[in-house]
Amino acid sequence: MNTIISATGLSKIYTRGAEQIKAVNNVDLEIQSGEFVAFMGASGSGKTTLIHLLGCLDTPSTGTLTIAGKEVFAAEKSLSEKKLTKVRAELFGYIFQKFYLIPTLTVKENIMLPFAFYKKPGLHQDAVTMARRLGLEHRLNHLPKEISGGEMQRVAIARALINKPRILLADEPTGNLDTKRSDEITEILHDLNRGEKLTIILVTHNPLLASHASRKLELRDGQLISE
Ligand SMILES: Nc1ncnc2c1ncn2[C@@H]1O[C@H](COP(=O)(O)OP(=O)(O)O)[C@@H](O)[C@H]1O
Ligand SMILES: [Mg+2]
Fold first, then answer.
1. What range defines the domain where residue 203 resides?
2. Residue 168: pLDDT band by 50, 70, 90 thresholds?
3. Do strands 199-203 and 167-171 pair parallel, antiparallel, or not at all (unpaired)?
4. What is the number of the ligand 1 atom nearest to the C-alpha of 222?
5. Is 202 in the pocket of ligand 1 (CB under 6 A)?
6. Residues 203-219: pLDDT tens digits?
C-alpha cells in the first residue's frame, strides 16, 4: 500500500476571547492511495476543520502533516505559500456543499476555472470531455442559474477533476441536494473511486454515500473516536 496522507498529533486551536476551542484535537491518521474515507460526526465536531487541514486549505496549530511524501506542516511550520499553492493545484480537487460556481461564467468556463491563471494546452477539449463524462455536454454554454442543483454539483465535480487530482476532498457534497440528485452524485463519486482508484476523503451525513466508503471515521469534539 501507498500512503498518500499521514498526520500525527494534528490539532487546530481557535481562540475566542478567553476561550480556546480545540476544533481538531490530536488526530493521528494515515490514508492510503485509492482509499475512500468518510468522516462522520455531529455538527461542530471538527469535520470541516479536519478536512480543510488535510487539504492544505488551512494551517494546523500543531502536529505534522505529510502529503504524497511532502512534509506540508512540521515543527510548527508550513511550506511556503507558493509551495502550498502547488500542492493544492497538483494533488487536490475540492468539492463543497455550496457549489461555489461563478454566476457570470458559463458551465464550460467554470469547469476551466482552476486554470484561470495559466494556460494549459488542450484545456478546452479537456473541459468538453469532462463535461461529457458528467452528462453536462448539452449545458456547456449555460450559466449556473439556468441549470439544476444536481447539474451544478456535477459542474463543481468536473471543475474539481480538471487538474487530474490524486485526492478528491468533499465537504458534505450531497448536503444541498434532494434524494435523486444525491444518489447521482453518490454514484459518480463511487465510480471515480472504484474505476479510477481516485482517493476520496469526504464528510457526509448521507448513509448511501457513506456506505461506499472503505473506511468510516467518527469525530467527536475534534477527536477521532472510532474506525
Ligand atoms: N474560524 C473559526 N473560529 C473559531 N471557531 C471555529 C472556527 N471554525 C470552526 N470553529 C469551531 O470549531 C469547532 C469545529 O467546527 P467545524 O470544523 O466547522 O465542525 P463540523 O464541520 O463538524 O460541523 C466548532 O466548535 C466551531 O464553532
Ligand atoms: Mg462542517
1. 35-60+79-226
2. very high
3. parallel
4. 14
5. no
6. 999 999 999 999 999 99
CATH of the domain at 56: 3.40.50.300
**Who contacts 220 (Cβ-Cβ below 8 Å, separation ≥6)?**
41, 42, 45
Residue 76 sits at the vertex; the CA angle it makes with 74 and 81, to the nearest 5 degrees, is 80
- Report how far residue 201's alpha carbon sits from residue 7's, in angstroms, rounded to the nearest whole number: 14
Residue 72 lies in a domain: no
DSSP class of residue 165? -
Binned at pLDDT 50, 70 and 90, residue 1 comes out as low
User: Is 65 domain-assigned?
Assistant: no
Name the residue of 14, 40, 51, 53 whose CB sits within 8 Å of the most ligand 1 atoms, as the mutation to test its pocket. Answer: 14
Domain-embedded: residue 162: yes
- Region 115-133: mean pLDDT is 91
Q: Enter the DSSP assignment of 98.
A: S
User: Going by CA atoms, what residue is nearest to atom 16 of ligand 1?
Assistant: 46
Kindly state the cell numbers that stand for 111: 469547469
Residue with CA at minimum distance from ligand 1 atom 24? 44
In a domain, 13, yes or no: no
User: Which pTM does this prediction carry?
Assistant: 0.95
Of ligand 1's listed atoms, the one at least distance from the Cα of 15 is: 4
Tally the domains of the chain: 1
Task: Give the H or E element holding residue 45.
Answer: none
Partner residues linked to 128 by β-bridges: none
Cβ proximity of 189 and 153 under 8 Å: no
